[in-house]
Design the sequence.
């Protein structure tokens, strides 16, 4: 009886099969291999497979366009090698940082375990020549800043301080001996750098009112003062300290080594932005630094400004990355979130917000792309960088605000990422020169009159 029962089942099964269709399928896939794999599935796995194969796709959810903030395809302008670097950084951020970003941001701690993995990307000192650095165009520095900030602005800031401000100070203002000592190991992230310019009482006006002082006594310099908001300073191996020389009233730069007597680094607590970045208040008291650790080519604030000019373009790219991360997170959310029986992405008011965000993103991308082209051509000026920083940081504020808007109450939850982008955008808006200061730099360039007090 069992034998005839099986014959009956097989006969019934063969009636259900379209052998012409089966023949066409067999041309595309290895049917015996598929049958063997299906036969090895347990009951739960088989139920899941059948559900996936038979469940109807909701109306309006099929063939949706990809989520991509590069609407005008600027990335097509990159070479194949440059595109490979971009995708390598993107993959790292999405696989290594994305899963832990909100945890460390909420804890206000830094994920030290990612430093060796970040170092393996070989992107530190990306535009510098020699010392193990890649010597790539400034365009790639911008692309990297965008990719880092697209997932986590804190990690982008950490990287910018180390690779841009700290390494850049040594690269532009250091002696050959100083470059040979520090840049190779900083490029490999075997030593981490920080940059100490801003002070508790002096931010934008530091060029004319620096309170941290230095005085040469014999073969040493004695430094006194405080620095505030110094990223990476709680664990950095070297901190670039800018101080005003009492004797000639000019800015000087120094390499403050970790463990050097005479300074303390107190972590700044209770921040609402860039919580993963370890900012510190540095207190420097009769700190002795040998002449060999003075940046030999930093003799006035003009030399400091060279470093800031080089890195300010990167901050504009970083603003773009922050905005792009918020936009893409919001767009993804609107396609999944349903109200009144359909995805909210189908509503006119939601689409209006999304298009406004995309327009801002596209305008920002066009500006920073041209900015980096100017930098690669040696034509970049302070006012070029300042205009991009002003515009991009303002537009980023608008983008993250709209991203939070379309997500409703969920927009304030870390699990959806946008809340973190909203907060971090406020830090970008302020550092590397406020809107007002950068505006006056551009205003001076276009009118010929300085409105600085």
Sequence:
């Amino acid at each position: 009886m069992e034998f005839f029962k099986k014959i009956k089942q097989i006969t019934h099964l063969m009636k259900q099969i379209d052998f012409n269709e089966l023949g066409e399928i067999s041309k595309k896939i290895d049917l015996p291999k598929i049958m063997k794999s299906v036969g090895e599935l347990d009951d739960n796995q088989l139920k899941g497979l059948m559900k996936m194969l038979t469940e109807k796709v909701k109306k309006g959810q099929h063939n949706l366009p990809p989520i991509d903030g590069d609407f005008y395809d600027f990335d097509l302008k990159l070479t194949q090698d440059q595109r490979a670097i971009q995708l390598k950084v993107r993959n790292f951020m999405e696989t290594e940082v994305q899963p832990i970003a909100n945890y460390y941001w909420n804890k206000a701690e830094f994920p030290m375990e990612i430093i060796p993995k970040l170092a393996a990307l070989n992107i530190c000192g990306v535009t510098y020549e020699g010392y193990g650095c890649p010597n790539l165009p400034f365009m790639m520095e911008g692309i990297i800043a965008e990719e880092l900030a697209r997932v986590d602005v804190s990690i982008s800031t950490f990287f910018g301080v180390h690779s841009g401000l700290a390494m850049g100070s040594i690269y532009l203002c250091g002696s050959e001996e100083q470059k040979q000592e520090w840049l190779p190991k900083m490029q490999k992230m075997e030593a981490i750098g920080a940059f100490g310019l801003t002070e508790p009482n002096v931010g934008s006006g530091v060029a004319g009112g620096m309170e941290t002082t230095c005085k040469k006594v014999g073969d040493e310099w004695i430094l006194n003062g405080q620095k505030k908001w110094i990223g990476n300073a709680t664990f950095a191996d070297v901190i670039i300290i800018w101080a005003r020389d009492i004797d000639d009233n000019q800015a000087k730069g120094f390499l403050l080594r970790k463990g050097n007597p005479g300074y303390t680094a107190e972590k700044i607590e209770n921040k609402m932005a860039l919580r993963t970045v370890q900012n510190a208040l540095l207190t420097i008291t009769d700190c002795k630094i040998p002449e060999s650790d003075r940046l030999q080519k930093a003799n006035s604030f003009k030399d400091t400004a060279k470093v800031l000019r080089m890195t300010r373009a990167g901050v504009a790219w970083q603003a773009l990355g922050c905005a792009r991360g918020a936009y893409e997170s919001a767009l993804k959310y609107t396609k999944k979130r349903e109200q009144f029986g359909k995805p909210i992405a189908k509503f006119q008011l939601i689409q209006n917000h999304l298009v406004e965000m995309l327009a801002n993103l596209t305008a920002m991308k066009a500006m920073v792309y041209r900015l980096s082209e100017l930098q690669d051509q040696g034509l970049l000026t302070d006012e070029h960088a300042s205009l991009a920083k002003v515009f991009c940081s303002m537009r980023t504020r608008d983008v993250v605000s709209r991203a939070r808007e379309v997500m409703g109450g969920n927009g304030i939850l870390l699990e959806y990422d946008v809340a973190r982008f909203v907060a971090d955008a406020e830090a970008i808006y302020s550092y590397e020169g406020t809107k007002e200061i950068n505006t006056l730099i551009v205003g001076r360039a276009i009118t010929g009159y300085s409105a600085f007090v």
Remarks:
- The chain is about 55% helix and 15% strand.
- Residues 357 and 399 are 5 Å apart (CA to CA).
- The chain has a mean pLDDT of 90.
- The radius of gyration is 28 Å.
